[in-house]
Each structure stands twice: as structure tokens, then as C-alpha cells.
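Exercise 7.
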Amino acid sequence: MGRAESSTPWPSVLSSPWAMAAGALGVSTSAVLIGISGASPGTATFYRCAIAALMLLPLVIYERHREGPPTNRQRLYAPAAGLLFAGDALWWTQAIGEVGAGLSTVLVNAQVVIMPLLALVVDREPISRRFPAILPAMIIGIVLTGGVLEQGAGGRDPLAGTVHALLAAACHSGFLFLLRRGGSEGQIVQSYQYVVVSAALVSLGAGFFFNGMTLAPGRASFGWLVLVAFGGQVAGWLLVALATPRLSSEAGAALLMLTPIGALVLGALVLGERPSTLQLIGSAASWSAPT
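Solution. The predicted structure, written as C-alpha cells, is:
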């Protein structure tokens, strides 16, 4: 498998598979924290990105001093990646309320098959011989996880939640693909800050179409969103951003499967979510397919 190498002022351990795994687990806390906050998709997306942009400032200053500013190419990639990230976050947050924090995160990881296809079409990065074999398992897993074929499945609107989560997965795949491309040139933190600023601006306008939004969510809700910004957006996604350029698309996508596993466990422990037996079987099929 091909992979992009990049020079970086950050310790090499932060761009290792272990860092990717830690980042994926950090991101897994986001769905549960957003569920606790009760914020609408627009409100949650705007604040998690805007707060993260502020938290990233010290790291941006450090990296700029060591590496200089981002390239023009990175500046072009970042807004596009930010647009896709906003779409991912808005549709995914919508799905959290419809199918649950854990299952919505499982469904978003349909990116495990979409991202390698993007790399194949755009970069001619070869896919493994096993890849065609995982497609049926992923499709079956998605259908079962969404609960669209059964009565009494977990979530208040499983069909809508499945559709919205798959739209988020498409945006998520494009975001990771651009993140991986832009990150291969260095200046990863600066590029990532461009992404979250762009996503905040997009969600500020588009958020009104996702159950409305408010700029005054209340202290409790705001506090939970600060935790989302730190744990998932800064610590989690920054580790993902640092590791992604050094890993193949399939390896990175497989490690990101730790996110839905963590979200499903946390959803059960913290929010009391109880997926049906078929939904759990579908989740297991989705996890086992790329591994």
C-alpha cells in the first residue's frame, strides 16, 4: 500500500498507528457528549469547531515558528475539507438524535469502504484483494445497524438516522481524503485550524436548516460542547490529522473503526442506549469487514 510521507516538527509517536488509535477513541466521546448537551446539530457543530479553533492557537504558533505558514495548495484544500467536515458533523449530529449516539457513529464508518475508493479513483492508490469481499458485509451491516428492516429497533427514527449517517459518511470520507492529501506537505496543525474555522463558518449559515441553532446554548450545554471541542475536536482529531498522512487509506480507515466501538460502549453506559440484537449483529459485521 502506498502512503504519503511528511516532515513535521511534532514527535514521530504522534503520527504513529498508536496515535491514530488514541485519536479515534478520543473522537468516540463526541457523540455521547453532544447527546448530553442537547444542542441542535447547527449549534453543536458551530461551537465544537469555533472553540477548537481557539484551543489550537498555541499549537499553530509553535508550528508556524518551526515550519512556516501553510502552502497555497494547503490553503485551497482546507476550506474544501472544512465544508465537507461541516456536512459530516451536521448530518451526523442529526443522526445522533434519530438512531442513537453509538449506532450513528457505527453507520458513519461506512467511510471504511468509501475512502479507499476515493484514493483509487483520484490517486490510483491500489486497494487490497480483500476489498471487494468486504462490500457485502458492510452493506448488510449498515442495513442491520440502521434497524430499517425491523420494528422496535433502537432510536426514534432509524430510517432517517441511517440516511443522515450515510450522508455524513460520504462527507467524512471526502474530508479524510483531503486531510490526508494536505497533511502530506506538513503544517498539519495550521491546515487543520483552517478546516475547523471553515467548518464553523459553514455551520453558522447551514445550521439553521438542521433543527435551527442558537448562539446562546446555556451554561450546561456550552460546557459539554467545550469538552467535545477538546476531547474530540482538538485532541482526538488532531492525532488523526497527524497520523493520517503516514498511513495507507485502508489502514487509517480500519483504525478509525475504534471510534464506533467506543461510541457504542459509551452510549450504552452513559445514555442507556440499548440497540436491538440485529443492530448489534450489524455493528459487528461492519467492524469485522475491514479487519
